[in-house]
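Side project, low priority. Logging it here so it doesn't get lost.
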Amino acid sequence: MLAETHEAERWHLRGVPSGPGLDKWTEILATTHLGFDIRPTQRTPGRFHGAVSRRRFGGLALVDCASSPWLGNHGKAMLGKESEAIMGFQSVRKGVELVRESGREITLTAGDLVLWDGWQSTEVEVVEPFLKRTLIFPRERVLSVCPRLAEVDALPPLGQSPPARLLARYVDALAAELPSFDEAAGAAAADAALELLRGAVEPSVPSTRAAKREALRASVRRFVRAGLQDPMLCPETIARAHAISVRALHALFEHSGESVAGLVRHERLRRCLEDLERATGGSVTEIAFRWGFRDAAHFSRVFKREFGQTPSEARHDSLARIDKESGAPALDSDEHLL
């Protein structure tokens, strides 16, 4: 797997004969989007053109894609694979694309927005040369903020709802700003994108009792992540903010494999580790207090239990890695051109 980078990775096919061109295009899409069985149509030109650029940030990927017409099937043999465990929020910039899934056919043209699931069988036909921009999410992260999606057979249409249009404008802003982001800014941008996606999708998804419980758990997790710097964050304050009793809060997480206190502790330690890995994160004590720990010795003990090393050891290893990477030769700019 390639290391996450805000620098653009690029793949190009310029006038390649359609036979080998479509073979190479299959490889490019499997790397940047999903696996497809691709074949030509009557509209596929004798010489194929295709281009993809990708920037990765905060566990997400922003991908621009353009190509000549083709027909592809994302079928059952590919479903359930770890590499396909992704979802995409796609905006069409120009051209025409037909998508056939779950017994329906969708015609996408310039300005259309759609959400797709890598674990769903899909046939795609590019009818006219097209350009699209896609924000790709790990499937589990989408379900963590919108768990009801796991219970539907077909993803809800986004249409031109105001939240979907807002997310599209945000994605365009990301495309312009990502080159200047550091790692912390990229992680914050990814969290914001997930929240905007939730706002665009959740109103259209039907509810069941189980889905409502999972949605409440997701809300608790978001509340915890937003309040980590408050040393008073505890089951009592979390329950009060969600208008439920402490007993109901604990019952909500009873079969989830985590406790409420464990969730708070894990999220705090994760943010502490992120700051320890930054040269400008501050001292170990400052970081511990920043993220809600009130005793430095207790912080050190629980940190070592979680990560197998003390905070000071984690900082030393991270700074040594930064020093090593800063002295590494840069990759040739053509390394990712095909």
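Brief comment: Residues 69 and 126 are 5 Å apart (CA to CA).
Revisit when time allows.
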